[in-house]
């Protein structure tokens, strides 16, 4: 455009939901997983401890030095585990570790497209869910009173 030129236009805005069309959803990717649980069933030391540490994501297993100079493995941050199960490739480490998941601990990951912060999106989604639950309860009550 050149200087002093102008555009004459009309804009129409529509507030929609992702249920109507994906273009209205402010969420890029949303996922969940269960919290990993890692238990060491026996002490793992020295070279085995270093291999064990290499089987997991960075920060999951840390090595502590004992007073006698030996390194011993400990679980530092099970949450950082990607559940690769690489430890089961080593016959001498298979019996040292138990991998499971905490059945009632969910880790949610929400990526925003930028219009709203992820924490705002989750709070708003919970409000929508609560409204739907209340509507369902109201409908149940209505059915029970008319029987």
Automatic annotation (TrEMBL):
Q: Output a single Gene Ontology CC term carried by this record.
A: RNA polymerase I complex
One Pfam short name: RNA_pol_L
**GO BP, sorted A to Z:** DNA-templated transcription
Recite the UniProt keywords alphabetically. DNA-directed RNA polymerase, Transcription
**Xref: SUPFAM superfamilies:** RBP11-like subunits of RNA polymerase
Q: Per its record, what are the GO molecular function terms?
A: DNA-directed RNA polymerase activity; protein dimerization activity
Q: Where is the DNA-directed RNA polymerase RpoA/D/Rpb3-type domain?
A: 1-139
SMART domains this protein is in? RPOLD
| UniProt-listed InterPro entries | DNA-dir_RNA_pol_RpoA/D/Rpb3, RBP11-like, Rpo3/RPB3_RNA_Pol_subunit
Against PANTHER family, the record matches this protein to:
DNA-DIRECTED RNA POLYMERASE, DNA-DIRECTED RNA POLYMERASES I AND III SUBUNIT RPAC1
Q: What is this protein called?
A: DNA-directed RNA polymerase RpoA/D/Rpb3-type domain-containing protein
